[in-house]
Design goal:
heterodimer, A: about 210 residues, alpha/beta, Rossmann fold, Arc Repressor Mutant, subunit A, 2 domains, 5-stranded parallel β-sheet, 9 helices, about 55% helix, B: about 1000 residues, alpha+beta, Methylamine Dehydrogenase, Chain H, Thrombin, subunit H, Immunoglobulin-like, 5 domains, 6-stranded mixed β-sheet
């Protein structure tokens, strides 16, 4: 079964190139592509793609906002953020909003395709600096309850190694687990981050101390 | 008594010589030269009626009572003045009626209230008499007035003179009428005394004096007695304006045109005064006769305490050079042009055999202890031996040349004489020898020779040297006078008992030598002159000094206090005007010029003559009357005050208090000291104006204390002191000051608020500015990101388009394009990161560095380990610092990859207080040697070191730009190297912290 993909990208030439790349790749199916957010917000819930390639900096509203709206509506869809720069603030915001991966736009075609496949197979990229953000985000809650996104000890040790600069392979070696398991942990961390950041936002909205 | 003297007619002026005359005129403060009445009140003040009003005199100051009279609604011109115990001083102004002065103010009496009074008289019992312009005669007793008109129909104005015959019986002389009052009636009794005009006055014994045109009578118990004959012309009743009998029984008659006469033992003596129109006479409590004169001011006659031996006393010349008394009590005078004279049995006799016919003034007369007198003249030395021939005999052994000056006869009989210009001679037992520089006397001619207690001869010289001869040799005694300031020594007094030697100089005051010390009393210390010619002790504890400006005395005790440092200055008593002596000039060329007689009286040779007086009488031992505040002025405006105190405003800039000491007899000797407690720290000696002047006084209470002395060292302090209250001005009051304090606080608050508000505004403006810059930076970053970034993305994506078949089929040119674009994108990424203000904090920096290191090292296949604190402080950093740190890291990582051979790099960050440390450690080769701050050696080929040293130098430069330090060391475990970069966050902080100081 093909991986169905939607693209949200405001730069028309880029969108076309990306679409061409997807179309010309076996096992991938281009479901739709949108140049502006309102249209994407309206149509994507119906499209129900497997993966959304989403530009972080959309003109009307940021890709992060877009993800925040769409993720609850499309829980099964993986959002892969595309960014020109490795801007950890934006990337982290997107991850917290529900994205499960990110990709620099100047990647090679191979890297792009690999990332799409990886994300559908449960893989999630996380760099050391993002990991630090995650740690500090969770660290703000003193005794996180599991249902509000508290991290398990295993997840915490994965995260800790990430912040120390370990690669997935090294983490797997270090913890005596497989790389896909590391990926699973990371994916779970992402999901919990999402829940956690949402509860944080609600708490902030209710003006209650977190 | 003195002989010879004043010219005069029938009078004997010699009688008047026992009186000294002192005059007061307009220049002394008298309001007018026309003084018409004089009266001493019971308090001792002298009241003077002048043509310009009524004044009161304390001996020094004439106080105008015009304002007091005007206040009482009366004219200031007075016709008559008297005093009763009950009413006080009573005056009759020309405007009519009578007023009494009591407790500092005049008030009207109901006596003669509607009449113009011509004369007043008060009986001892207080009964008051007045004669009026309307010819009535009034008697006032116990508030009841009787009126008589004995003079009715007379063409003469009634100006009556009164005299009490006995209590209840009066003689009233009114021009051509004389009447007697007794038992409520006035009876004209002209027939008793003969006509046609009469003057009367009281007498202490033997009934009133009655003066007619040509006779002086006295009304005795047993009838009228003729007291004198031969009344001088124009002195009889019609011409006599006033009669007064003093306590000696002397009748004083003041005439309208003939001056003042005294009648003693039936003889008339003319007494010289400063004018002829005598209008009033009164005797003060000290026996001084005060005379008011129309056109002549105020005179006072006082019995002389001084005798003056001058030409009128029988000497040939007023000026005597030298005076002394011999063992027989004969006083010898060396007279300038009158030769040698003596005073024997009260008579002056001049030697007829004048010893020096030419140029032979007597310069010294000296008795020796064998009864002889040595007479030194310009032509030789003579000796008088009363036990011998009784005449002057030359001492032949003493040559007249060189010129002979001062002389001295020592106790051992040696005769010493100073020789001009620079020798001293001694005559002993028929031998005369002289001493000069060769003999040890190295000085100019002696000005004084005397002897100390040990018998040493003391010589003071013209060139200011003091030389002592102990019998064998001359020894100078240093006086520590500065070069060129030496003054001739004019007298030396070797004080018995104290060992002190007093040295009088011609310009340096007095030196006091003794007790191993030399002390100096200068003119400023209270000597009246710096030129002192003679020093003479008396038997009353005073030292007397002669000077060109007069003779004065100082209490020995006061001098001792001054020498001991206990007194600030001495207070001389000057023999002068108070004593009827003016301008007593003592010259210091000849010795002895002053002498203490065997009777204790002192003799001083002066230009006016030789003065002889009893020092015990010259100085009274009585205390002075208290010094009282007589007048107050504030800023030169007279100010009323009472004894209870004086209240002035703090606005007063100059407070002047005139002090008064009532002393009519010797006002010139009065000394006043004052002290304002609360202001002055010590007593201040009042100047001649006797006024204490104070500048603006701070609010508060003060007491003015005063003390007075008659120059005898007895100080009488006034009690109580005058309370002076300085009332604060409204702005000096407490409530006002509190108000000011509050206002100040408010002001400070307002200022602080304004300033801080301005600061805040400035800060906001700056933040606004910074924020504008940030917005601009963000815009640039976004533009680069959106526009350039998008284009580059397209290019890099486009290069991937033709690669469906995998990397193996890659077109190498396309790949090159892709790599180039990718590098450009990375550079853009760096620029955007550096420019974007949202990264201006430590956490942003850490994230970026970590991301960069991870991706860079993973490409190189080097493990990257991170050691970062979970939380980095939220510190702002400038973009420059961020960029510098990033470039450092980049440089280091490049070096690691290229040169170290390491397979792992650890990036650690630490914050400690204000410091931030970035540590980059690798496990490659070690550096050649440790270096710090870029001083590591070049050319080492392993470790973390840079290939040419440029890398580390660049790092050093960047670190220096950030104001930090760096250290490049081997890593701890034997492998690898470590670079530590340490910066202060404060200095690298973005400038949005609050500024310091005022804006």
């Amino acid at each position: 079964m093909n991986i169905r993909i939607s693209i949200v990208e405001d730069d028309e030439p880029t969108r076309r190139i990306l679409a061409d790349v997807i179309r010309s790749s076996p096992g991938l199916e281009l479901l739709s592509h949108y140049g502006d957010t309102p249209q994407a917000l309206e149509s994507l819930p119906r499209d129900k793609p497997d993966v959304v390639l989403m530009d972080i900096n959309l003109i009307a509203s940021t890709g992060v906002e877009c993800v925040r709206h769409l993720k609850p509506l499309l829980p099964a869809t993986q959002f892969l953020m595309l960014t020109v720069y490795e801007d950890s603030d934006h990337i982290f915001a997107a991850l917290a909003a529900g994205a499960t991966g990110y990709l620099l736009k100047d990647t090679t075609r191979e890297e792009l395709l690999a990332a799409i496949h990886q994300i559908t197979q449960g893989g999630s990229p996380m760099s050391g600096s993002i990991a630090r953000r995650v740690v500090s985000s969770f660290g703000r809650v003193p005794n996180p309850a599991p249902d509000t996104g508290g991290l398990s000890p295993r997840e915490q040790s994965v995260l800790s190694l990430l912040t120390k600069g370990y690669l997935y392979k090294e983490i797997a070696e270090q913890l005596g687990i497989s790389v896909p398991t590391v990926n699973t942990y990371i994916r779970r961390i992402y999901e919990k981050l999402q829940v956690h950041s949402r509860s944080q936002a609600i708490a902030k909205y209710l003006k209650q101390p977190v | 008594m003195l002989a010879g003297g004043l010219p005069g007619g029938a009078a004997e002026p010699s009688w008047a010589g026992q009186y000294s005359l002192r005059e007061w005129h307009a220049q002394d403060g008298l309001p007018s030269e026309d003084v018409t009445r004089v009266h001493q009140d019971r308090a001792g003040y002298l009241w003077l009626v002048t043509a310009r009003g009524l004044v009161r005199f304390d001996g020094t100051y004439f106080e105008d009572f015009g304002p007091g009279l005007r206040q009482a609604g009366a004219a200031v011109y007075i016709r008559a003045i008297t005093e009763t115990p009950e009413l006080g001083v009573v005056v009759a102004p020309t405007s009519g009626g009578t007023l009494a002065f009591r407790d500092g103010a005049f008030r009207r009496l109901d006596f003669a209230a509607d009449k113009i009074v011509n004369s007043l008289f008060a009986e001892a019992d207080g009964t008051l008499w007045a004669s009026c312009d309307d010819q009535s005669l009034l008697r006032w007793q116990a508030g009841k007035t009787e009126e008589f008109r004995p003079n009715e129909g007379s063409p003469h104005r009634l100006v009556a003179h009164f005299a009490a015959e006995r209590p209840g019986r009066m003689l009233i002389a009114g021009g051509t009428m004389i009447g007697r009052y007794e038992s409520g009636r006035v009876e004209v009794v002209n027939a008793e005394f003969g006509g046609p005009e009469f003057r009367v006055t009281d007498s202490r014994k033997g009934g009133p004096w009655i003066l007619t045109i040509d006779r002086l009578l006295k009304m005795g118990e047993d009838g009228v007695k003729e007291m004198a004959t031969g009344i001088p012309p124009l002195v009889g009743a019609h011409y006599a304006s006033v009669l007064h009998e003093d306590r000696q029984g002397t009748l004083w008659i003041g005439t309208r045109s003939q001056g003042l006469y005294a009648v003693v033992d039936g003889r008339f003596h003319l007494v010289p005064t400063s004018g002829e129109a005598i209008t009033g006479i009164c005797e003060d409590t000290d026996g001084g006769i005060w005379v008011s004169i129309n056109g002549g001011g105020l005179n006072r006659l006082r019995r002389r305490d001084f005798k003056l031996y001058d030409r009128t006393a029988g000497l040939g010349d007023n000026y005597s050079f030298t005076v002394s008394e011999d063992a027989a009590g004969v006083v010898w005078f060396g007279n300038r042009d009158g030769g040698l004279a003596w005073l024997r049995d009260g008579k002056i006799e001049t030697f007829t055999n004048r010893p020096a016919p030419a140029n032979g003034s007597v310069t010294s007369v000296l008795p020796d202890n064998r009864g002889r007198v040595w007479v030194t003249t310009g032509l030789g030395v003579l000796r008088f031996d009363p036990a011998g021939a009784g005449r002057l005999e030359p001492v032949a052994e003493i040559p007249a040349k060189p010129a002979i000056g001062v002389a001295y006869v020592a106790r051992n009989g040696d005769y010493w004489v100073g020789l001009t210009p620079d020798r001293v001679g001694r005559y002993r037992e028929g031998r005369f020898e002289t001493f000069g520089a060769a003999e040890g006397f190295a000085a100019q001619a002696p000005r004084v020779i005397t002897e100390d207690e040990q018998g040493g001869i003391l010589i003071g010289t013209t060139d200011g040297k003091l030389i002592r001869f102990d019998g064998r040799r001359f020894a100078p005694i240093p006086l520590e006078v500065k070069e060129g300031e030496a003054e001739p020594i004019q007298d030396i007094y070797s004080e018995p008992g104290t060992g002190l030697t007093w040295i009088a100089t011609a310009g340096n005051g007095v030196y006091v030598l003794g007790g191993g010390r030399l002390r100096h009393i200068r003119a400023e210390d209270g000597l009246i002159a710096a030129n002192i010619t003679t020093i003479l002790p008396d038997d009353q504890g005073y030292l007397w000094f002669g000077s060109p400006v007069g003779i004065f005395s100082l209490r020995r005790q006061e001098l001792a206090d001054l020498l001991a440092g206990r007194g600030a200055r001495v207070h001389p008593v000057i023999v002068g005007r108070d004593d009827g002596m003016h301008g007593l000039t003592c010259l210091g060329l000849y010795k002895p010029a002053a002498w203490k007689g065997r009777d204790g009286h002192l003799w001083f040779a002066t230009r006016k003559g030789v003065v002889n007086f009893n020092p015990a009488r010259a100085i009274t031992d009585t205390a002075a009357p208290p010094a009282v505040v007589a007048a107050v002025s504030c800023d030169d405006e007279a100010r009323a005050f009472s004894a209870g105190g004086l209240a002035i405003s703090a606005r007063v800039r100059k407070l002047a208090l005139r002090l008064s000491v009532l002393c009519l007899s010797t006002p010139d000797r009065v000394q006043i000291k004052y002290r304002l407690d609360g202001f002055d720290s010590q007593w201040i000696t009042a100047g001649p104006d006797r006024t204490a002047v104070y500048p603006r006084l701070p609010p508060g209470s003060y007491h003015l204390r005063t003390m007075a002395s008659l120059g005898n060292g007895v100080w009488n302090e006034s009690n109580p002191a005058l309370l002076i209250t300085v009332q604060p001005l409204w702005w000096q009051t407490l409530w006002f000051r509190l108000l000011v304090a509050c206002a100040l606080v408010v002001l400070v608050i307002v200022v602080v608020r304004t300033v801080s508000h301005r600061r805040l505004r400035a800060r906001l403006e700056r933040l606004e500015q910074e924020s504008a810059i940030e917005r601009e930076r963000a815009r640039i970053a976004r533009n680069i990101h959106d526009d350039l970034g998008a284009s580059l993305t397209r290019i890099s994506l486009l290069t991937q388009m033709g690669r469906r078949d995998g990397p193996s089929a890659a077109n190498p040119q396309l790949h090159q394009i892709y790599e180039t674009v990718r590098q450009i994108t990375r550079s853009m990424d760096e620029i955007v990161w550096a420019v974007n203000p949202k990264n201006d904090h430590l956490d942003g920096l850490a994230s970026y560095l970590v991301s960069y290191a991870q991706s860079f090292l993973s490409v190189a296949g080097i493990r990257c380990r991170l050691d970062l604190p979970d939380h980095l402080p939220a510190v702002a950093l400038t973009s420059q610092t961020r960029h510098n740190l990033y470039l450092c890291l980049k440089e280091v990582l490049n070096n690691v990859v290229k040169h170290s051979g390491a397979d792992e790099v650890t990036i650690a960050m630490r914050t400690e207080g204000d410091r931030f440390t970035l540590l980059i450690t690798d496990n490659g080769r070690q550096p050649a040697r440790a270096g710090a701050n870029g001083t590591n050696g070049q050319g080492a080929d392993h470790g973390l070191r840079v290939s040419s040293g440029h890398g580390l130098r660049n790092i050093a430069q960047r670190v220096a730009e950030m104001g930090g330090t760096h250290e490049f060391t081997p890593a701890g475990d034997g492998r690898g190297a470590r670079l530590a970069i340490n910066i202060a966050l404060g200095s690298a902080r973005a400038k949005n912290s609050p500024p310091s100081g005022l804006v």
